[in-house]
Amino acid sequence: MKKKITLILIILLFLSNNLFSEEKRTIQKEKPRAGMGLSVQPGGILIQHVKLDETYNFYEKSGIALIVENKDTLPHTYIINTFKPSQVGNKKWLTGYLEIPEPSWFFFEKNEVTVEPKSKQKVKMYLKVPKEEKYYNQHWTVSLGVTGKPEKGQMLALAVYPRYQIETETKTGLKEKPAGLIGFEPGTLIFENLALGKKEKNKIIVYNNDNKPHKYRITPKIIEVDTTKEQIFNTPGYRWIPNIKWIRPCKRKLKINSDESKEITITVNIPKKQKYYLKKWEAIIFIEPDEGPSGFVRVQIEPNK
Amino acid sequence: MKKLLICLITLALITGFGLTKAEAATSDEIAVTVTLQNISVSVTPDDWAIGTVAPSSVNTQACTATNNGNVNEDLDIAVTDSTNWTAGASAGSDIFAMDFSLTGAAPWTNITTGGVVLVNALAPGDQTFTLQFTAPDPGSVYTQQSITVTVSASP
Q1: Per the confidence metrics, is the pTM higher than 0.80?
Q2: CB contact, 8 Å: A89 with chain B?
C-alpha cells in the first residue's frame, strides 16, 4: 500500500513539474514585446572654416543630411529643432567649445517629420552665422533635438540630442573683441613653410570678457582618438603633432583682468630630420580659467625644406 | 617621339602642381567631418496602459532601454503633466508621482518634468529599469489622463 501511495505521489510530482514548466514556457513565449527605437545620424559633426554671412547647405556641400530612423513597428512623428546644449538632454557639452549664442543659426528644411515603421527620412541641414566681427575665431557647440511627438494613447516617447561643433573662420586684427566669456585671436595659429631646426614664434591674444579677473592655465595638447567619445578632433588633412613638446607657450599661467586681453607667444621648434619635411601637423593650445568656460586655439604646422 | 614624351611629362607635372594648388586653395573652404556615426536608443515595451487606478495605488512596469549606437550615451528620463494631474515628488491632491529604479526595488528616483539622469555613459547594450506610478490621492477628476514618459539619449 505504502509503495503504491509513494508511486502515485512521484507520478503526481512529475506531472505537476511538467505542467509548471509548460506554463513557464508559455510565459517566456509571451515575454518579448514590441519596443520603440530611434536612431539619428550623424551623431556628431565638426564644421570648420565657417564663413560669416554665408548660408551652408550641408547636403549640397558635403552630401550630409540628418537621417532620422524609426525602428518601431508604428509610424512616428518627430520634432526637429536646435538648442543650446545647456537646455536639453544631459545638459553637458564638450569642454573647449562654447554654447552657440543663437541656436536658430543652425536650421533644417523642416521641423517636423513623420517616419514610417522601420524606415528612415533625410532632412537637410543649414547654417548661417551673421556677419559681425565678434563671431570670427569662434568654437561653438549646438544641440540638435529629435523628439518623438507623443502619439494619442501612447505613454512612452524617445528623444535623441546629438551635438555638433562649429568653428568660424580665423582672423587677426579684429575691430571688436570676440564673442563669449573667453575669446581668442586668431582661432587658428598657422606656421606655414616652417624651417626645421629653427625656433619660430607667433602670437595669440586671449580675451577675458567676464566681469571679473581670471587666472588661466595654458597647455599645449593633442587628443588621443577615441571613437566612442565626443572629443576635439583634428582638422581633416592634418595629423596630431608627434611630439607636443615641440610647441611651447611663453607662459603656462596667466592672469587677465575683467574686459582685458593679453598676448601669449607660442614657439614652435621641430628637429631637422628628413622625415619631418612636408608634413601637416596640428595641436591645440588649451586655455582653462580658474572658473568658467575653457577654450582653445588650433596650431597648424607645415614644415618645409 | 622623345619630344612628345617630354611634352606629356611636362603636362602631367603641370596638372599635378595644379591639383596641389587647388587642394591648398580649398583648405579655407568649409570642412565637414562626421565625428560620431549615430546616436540611437530603444525602449521595450513601447507602451504602458495603466488602466483604472484607485487613489494612491501603485503600478509598476519593467522596461529595458538599449543603446543601439556606437558611442557611449547618457540616458535621461522626463515625464509630462496630464490635462488634470501634475507630476510631483509624491502623490497628492491631483498630483501623481512617477519614479524609476534600476533594480526594481527601493530606492526609487522621482522623475521630474525637467528630466533626471537614468544612466550615465551607457556603453552599447541594455539597461533595465522599472517605472513606478503612484496615483493622486485624492483625485478630483475621473476621466482618462495621458502622461508621457520620454527617454532621451545624448552623447
Answers
A1: yes
A2: yes
